[in-house]
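Case study 2.
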Amino acid sequence: MGIMSFIKEAGEKLFGHKEAETAAAQAQAAPDNSAALAAAQAANQKAADAIGKYIAANGLAADALDISFDGASSTVTVAGQAADQATKEKILLCCGNVAGVAGVNDLMTVAAPADESKWHTVVRGDTLSAISKTYYGNANQYMKIFEANKPMLSHPDKIYPGQLLRIPA
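Prediction:
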Protein backbone atom coordinates (compact mmCIF):
# COMPACT_ATOMS: atom_id res chain seq x y z
CA MET A 1 0.00 0.00 0.00
CA GLY A 2 1.05 3.55 -0.57
CA ILE A 3 1.58 5.90 -3.46
CA MET A 4 3.25 4.71 -6.65
CA SER A 5 4.76 7.32 -8.96
CA PHE A 6 4.28 7.35 -12.72
CA ILE A 7 5.41 9.59 -15.55
CA LYS A 8 2.45 11.87 -16.15
CA GLU A 9 3.01 12.41 -19.87
CA ALA A 10 3.39 8.70 -20.69
CA GLY A 11 0.66 6.15 -21.14
CA GLU A 12 -2.72 5.41 -22.65
CA LYS A 13 -4.72 8.48 -23.60
CA LEU A 14 -8.05 7.68 -21.94
CA PHE A 15 -9.39 11.11 -21.01
CA GLY A 16 -8.63 14.81 -21.44
CA HIS A 17 -6.28 15.23 -18.49
CA LYS A 18 -5.73 18.90 -19.31
CA GLU A 19 -9.48 19.41 -18.90
CA ALA A 20 -9.41 17.82 -15.43
CA GLU A 21 -6.36 19.85 -14.39
CA THR A 22 -7.88 23.13 -15.64
CA ALA A 23 -11.17 22.45 -13.86
CA ALA A 24 -9.31 21.60 -10.64
CA ALA A 25 -7.22 24.78 -10.87
CA GLN A 26 -10.34 26.91 -11.41
CA ALA A 27 -12.07 25.27 -8.43
CA GLN A 28 -9.01 25.89 -6.22
CA ALA A 29 -8.76 29.52 -7.35
CA ALA A 30 -12.40 30.18 -6.49
CA PRO A 31 -13.45 27.67 -3.79
CA ASP A 32 -16.79 29.48 -3.33
CA ASN A 33 -17.67 29.13 -7.04
CA SER A 34 -20.07 26.18 -7.17
CA ALA A 35 -19.96 26.03 -11.00
CA ALA A 36 -16.16 25.64 -11.01
CA LEU A 37 -16.37 23.04 -8.24
CA ALA A 38 -19.04 21.09 -10.14
CA ALA A 39 -16.94 21.22 -13.34
CA ALA A 40 -13.92 19.87 -11.45
CA GLN A 41 -15.96 17.06 -9.91
CA ALA A 42 -17.43 16.16 -13.31
CA ALA A 43 -13.97 16.10 -14.95
CA ASN A 44 -12.58 13.96 -12.13
CA GLN A 45 -15.50 11.53 -12.39
CA LYS A 46 -15.09 11.30 -16.18
CA ALA A 47 -11.41 10.43 -15.70
CA ALA A 48 -12.18 7.84 -13.00
CA ASP A 49 -14.86 6.26 -15.21
CA ALA A 50 -12.43 6.06 -18.16
CA ILE A 51 -9.82 4.33 -15.99
CA GLY A 52 -12.44 1.90 -14.66
CA LYS A 53 -13.48 1.02 -18.23
CA TYR A 54 -9.83 0.50 -19.17
CA ILE A 55 -9.37 -1.91 -16.25
CA ALA A 56 -12.50 -3.84 -17.27
CA ALA A 57 -11.41 -3.87 -20.93
CA ASN A 58 -8.20 -5.58 -19.83
CA GLY A 59 -10.23 -8.33 -18.17
CA LEU A 60 -9.29 -7.32 -14.63
CA ALA A 61 -11.68 -7.17 -11.70
CA ALA A 62 -11.73 -6.77 -7.95
CA ASP A 63 -14.45 -6.92 -5.33
CA ALA A 64 -15.82 -3.49 -4.39
CA LEU A 65 -13.44 -1.78 -6.85
CA ASP A 66 -13.55 1.97 -6.25
CA ILE A 67 -11.59 4.40 -8.42
CA SER A 68 -11.34 8.15 -7.98
CA PHE A 69 -9.23 10.78 -9.72
CA ASP A 70 -7.97 14.10 -8.38
CA GLY A 71 -7.12 16.49 -11.22
CA ALA A 72 -5.35 18.89 -8.87
CA SER A 73 -2.69 16.32 -7.94
CA SER A 74 -3.10 14.06 -11.01
CA THR A 75 -3.53 11.14 -8.61
CA VAL A 76 -5.76 8.09 -8.89
CA THR A 77 -6.95 6.43 -5.68
CA VAL A 78 -7.95 2.79 -6.07
CA ALA A 79 -9.52 0.55 -3.43
CA GLY A 80 -11.06 -2.90 -3.41
CA GLN A 81 -10.02 -6.50 -2.94
CA ALA A 82 -8.22 -8.37 -5.69
CA ALA A 83 -8.23 -12.15 -5.82
CA ASP A 84 -4.43 -12.33 -5.99
CA GLN A 85 -1.29 -10.18 -5.95
CA ALA A 86 -0.84 -10.29 -9.74
CA THR A 87 -4.35 -8.94 -10.35
CA LYS A 88 -3.82 -6.17 -7.81
CA GLU A 89 -0.55 -5.14 -9.44
CA LYS A 90 -2.08 -5.19 -12.93
CA ILE A 91 -4.95 -2.97 -11.75
CA LEU A 92 -2.44 -0.53 -10.28
CA LEU A 93 -0.55 -0.51 -13.58
CA CYS A 94 -3.77 0.13 -15.50
CA CYS A 95 -4.45 3.12 -13.25
CA GLY A 96 -0.94 4.55 -13.52
CA ASN A 97 0.11 3.88 -17.10
CA VAL A 98 -2.38 6.52 -18.28
CA ALA A 99 -1.49 9.94 -19.69
CA GLY A 100 -2.29 12.55 -17.06
CA VAL A 101 -1.70 10.30 -14.04
CA ALA A 102 1.35 11.12 -11.92
CA GLY A 103 0.59 8.81 -9.01
CA VAL A 104 -1.62 6.00 -7.78
CA ASN A 105 -2.72 5.81 -4.15
CA ASP A 106 -2.98 2.06 -3.50
CA LEU A 107 -5.68 1.20 -0.95
CA MET A 108 -6.26 -2.30 -2.34
CA THR A 109 -6.13 -5.56 -0.42
CA VAL A 110 -5.53 -9.09 -1.66
CA ALA A 111 -7.56 -12.20 -0.85
CA ALA A 112 -4.56 -14.51 -1.38
CA PRO A 113 -1.39 -12.59 -0.42
CA ALA A 114 1.88 -13.39 -2.18
CA ASP A 115 5.28 -11.77 -2.70
CA GLU A 116 5.15 -8.40 -4.41
CA SER A 117 6.76 -7.89 -7.78
CA LYS A 118 9.63 -5.54 -8.48
CA TRP A 119 8.95 -2.56 -10.74
CA HIS A 120 10.86 -1.19 -13.71
CA THR A 121 10.34 2.14 -15.46
CA VAL A 122 11.12 1.77 -19.16
CA VAL A 123 13.74 4.16 -20.52
CA ARG A 124 14.67 4.90 -24.11
CA GLY A 125 16.50 1.92 -25.61
CA ASP A 126 15.05 -0.65 -23.19
CA THR A 127 13.88 -4.00 -24.49
CA LEU A 128 12.21 -6.78 -22.56
CA SER A 129 15.32 -8.91 -23.21
CA ALA A 130 17.61 -6.27 -21.70
CA ILE A 131 15.29 -5.82 -18.72
CA SER A 132 15.17 -9.60 -18.28
CA LYS A 133 18.99 -9.77 -18.34
CA THR A 134 19.12 -7.09 -15.62
CA TYR A 135 16.61 -8.73 -13.26
CA TYR A 136 17.05 -12.44 -14.00
CA GLY A 137 20.56 -12.64 -15.46
CA ASN A 138 19.10 -14.24 -18.59
CA ALA A 139 17.80 -12.28 -21.60
CA ASN A 140 15.70 -15.28 -22.68
CA GLN A 141 13.39 -14.83 -19.66
CA TYR A 142 11.76 -11.80 -21.35
CA MET A 143 8.50 -13.71 -21.92
CA LYS A 144 8.09 -13.97 -18.12
CA ILE A 145 7.98 -10.15 -17.99
CA PHE A 146 5.73 -9.96 -21.05
CA GLU A 147 3.25 -12.46 -19.56
CA ALA A 148 3.28 -10.63 -16.21
CA ASN A 149 2.23 -7.41 -17.97
CA LYS A 150 -0.47 -8.82 -20.24
CA PRO A 151 -3.00 -7.66 -21.31
CA MET A 152 -1.53 -4.13 -21.02
CA LEU A 153 1.27 -5.25 -23.35
CA SER A 154 0.08 -6.57 -26.68
CA HIS A 155 3.51 -7.52 -28.08
CA PRO A 156 6.97 -7.98 -26.50
CA ASP A 157 8.42 -5.27 -28.76
CA LYS A 158 5.81 -2.65 -27.85
CA ILE A 159 7.04 -0.92 -24.71
CA TYR A 160 7.54 2.82 -24.37
CA PRO A 161 9.67 5.14 -22.25
CA GLY A 162 7.97 6.05 -19.00
CA GLN A 163 5.91 2.86 -18.83
CA LEU A 164 6.05 1.00 -15.51
CA LEU A 165 6.38 -2.79 -15.79
CA ARG A 166 5.86 -5.59 -13.26
CA ILE A 167 8.91 -7.78 -12.78
CA PRO A 168 7.70 -10.98 -11.07
CA ALA A 169 9.98 -12.79 -8.63
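The mean pLDDT is 89.
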